[in-house]
Amino acid sequence: MAEGSMRLSREAMAQRFTSPLQALQREHPSVIAAQVCTSDGFVVSQAHSNEEAGRRLAAMVSSLHAVGAAMVEELALGDYGHLSVEASLGKCMLFAVPGTNGSLLLAAIADDSMLWGQFLTACRTLSDTLGVLATRSE
Amino acid sequence: MAEEHKIIFTGSVGAGKTTAIAAVAGKNMVRTEAVNTDTRVAKATTTVGFDYGEIGLPDGSVLRLYGTPGQRRFAFLWRILARGALGLVVLVDNSRPDPLGDLAMYLENFADLVKTGAVVVGVGRTETHPEPSLDAYYRFLESRQLMLPVFAVDVREQEHVLMMLDVLLNMLELAGDEEAHHG
Ligand SMILES: Nc1nc2c(ncn2[C@@H]2O[C@H](COP(=O)(O)OP(=O)(O)OP(=O)(O)O)[C@@H](O)[C@H]2O)c(=O)[nH]1
Ligand SMILES: [Mg+2]
User: Fold this and answer.
1) Which CATH code for domain A2-135?
2) Which of A58, A112, B136, B141 is deepest in the core (most CB within 10 A)?
3) pLDDT at residue A108 in the model
4) CB distance A66–B77 less than 8 Å?
5) Do A62 and B46 touch (CB under 8 A)?
């Protein structure tokens, strides 16, 4: 059950998430930033060091996620998967961490050298890993 | 001619922006609530995107109601949501530590809309928290050269919300039909 994640403190989750987030950046140097935040827009864990940028990103990620999910619901498109934004200088990818009832979100930003498919796969894999870590009880 | 008018509900976290729009727009509203994890906010959920609801007016025009998030970290959305809006409802929770300061903060952040003058202020929880009084609100607004109507409201009551919208529409002179009969 998803409740396992609710009982973990934010600090405990942050510790669990740091290393997989850093691994994403290590394996894909085009990834500029990666973070896990709560669905109400607070940073849980991030791989980059700029705290203010991280806080701002978390608020935007929670808004985008909520608007995307509202749109999926309005259009009766089933279950929300992920949201992506493409810009001339880079891309953003936004996933709901599985098993957390939408309470945790993964956001990653890559520069324009990252290929879409590669980015999508890397984020999906990371998001699944985070889901396992978030719901693992011990 | 069917027209659409965009109205913004903003104000303190927990003042009842989402509740107000639900009270008048009913089940078809769009919500973007997230579970609240901030212990300083005594509420199960909080708006992180925007609320959206519609009301049809007798002349066939439509009021599009947008509720903003109240929390400051979502201020980037305030500017986006304010675009194209004709009127503003600012809801203040009188049980918070500094309701007049809250009001000032939202008025500053929606300054462009405030300049147009179509703004009403709704003060909530006045039965349990009578201070600041409505007089204090009027004095506060006047000290800022603002002549805005202030109401004590319970946004859970549909009538209270409709009353504020009615006043706002009159200020916008959108309720033109009745006036046309004066002739
Ligand atoms: N007792 C009491 N409760 C009220 C009154 N007005 C609003 N409420 C309650 O206060 C809560 C307001 O919650 P929301 O509508 O989510 O507030 P909001 O302004 O949308 O908050 P954010 O989106 O988080 O900024 C609801 O539970 C209302 O029922 C009032 O006058 N008296
Ligand atoms: Mg709300």
Assistant:
1) 3.30.450.30
2) A58
3) 98
4) no
5) no
Closest approach of chain A CAs to the CA of B45, in angstroms?
Answer: 8
* Burial A32-48, CB ≥16 within 10 A → b, else e: bbbbbbbbbbebbbbbb
pTM for the model: 0.90
Sign of CA dihedral A122, A7, A9, B75: positive
Q: Which residue range forms the structural domain that includes residue B56? A: 4-176
On whether residue B183 sits in a domain, the answer given is no
**What CATH number did the domain enclosing B54 receive?**
3.40.50.300
For chain B, the residue count is 183
Label residue B179 by pLDDT band (50, 70, 90). Answer: very low
Instruction: Please count the structural domains in chain B.
Output: 1
Q: Which residues contact A85 (CB under 8 A, 6 or more apart)?
A: A64, A91, A92, A94
Of B30, B32, B37, the CB nearest to A38: B37
Residue B143 lies in a domain: yes
Q: Among A38, A55, A66, whose Cβ lies nearest the Cβ of B32? A: A66
pLDDT in tens, A27-37: 999 999 999 99
Which residues of chain A neighbour B36 with C-beta distances below 8 Å?
Answer: 40
